[in-house]
Amino acid sequence: MHELSMKLEIRNCIDVLRKGGTILYPTDTIWGIGCDATNTKAVQKVFKIKKRMESKSLIVLLDRKESLHTYISSVPDIALDLVDSVTTPLTIIYPNAKNLAKNIIANDGTIAIRLVRHEFCYKLIRMFGKPIVSTSANISGQPSPLMFKSITEEIISQVDYVVNLSRFEVKETKPSTIIRLKTNGEFEIIRK
Fold first, then answer.
1. Residue 66's CATH number
2. Domain count, the chain
3. pLDDT tens digits, residue range 62-109?
4. Is pTM beyond 0.85 here?
5. CB hemisphere CA count around 4 (13 angstroms)
6. How far out from the chain centre does Cα 76 lie?
7. Less packed terminus of the chain by CB within 10 Å, N or C?
C-alpha cells in the first residue's frame, strides 16, 4: 500500500467522519460501512443504508486495548488476555458500554468491540481519535461482500466517501470470531 495514498485516504475519511458522514472502507475482515461511533446521527445513517433495524447492534473498531476503558465501564482481565493471545480478528461483546452513541449500544447495555491490526484501519482510528463503526457493506440479510467488486451500487451510492485503496485485493477472509463476556467472568463463543 503506497504511503502517500494511504495518508490522503485517511485525511479524506477523517474529514467525512468529523462531519458526521459515512465511509465505505477495507477492514481486517471484509469491506465495511463506517462512521463515528460516538455520533448518534451518523450511526442512524448507517442503519438506514443497511436497511437494518436499530435494535440490531453494530461492531465498533478501536486501535488499541488501552482505549477500551474509555468505552467500557470495567474491562475484565480475561478480555485483555484474549486480545493478547489471538492472531485472527476477534470481536468481544462487553457489558456496560459508555461514551458511545446511544443507538449503537444494545438494549442490554453491551457493545461489540474489535481491536484492529489492519494498517489502514489502525492508522485511521489512531488519527481520528475515536472509535469507528464497522458493519458489512451490504443490505441486511444479503451476503457479506468478500471483495470490493461484490459491493452493490445501492450501497456505494449511499455512503459519503469510498476509500480508494485495496479495491482489487481478494482476501480469503471471513467475519471475525465473536465472544460474549458474561458478568461472572466467563465467556461464550457466539460466532467462530
1. 3.90.870.10
2. 1
3. 999 999 999 999 888 888 888 888 878 888 899 899 999 999 999 889
4. yes
5. 0
6. 21
7. C
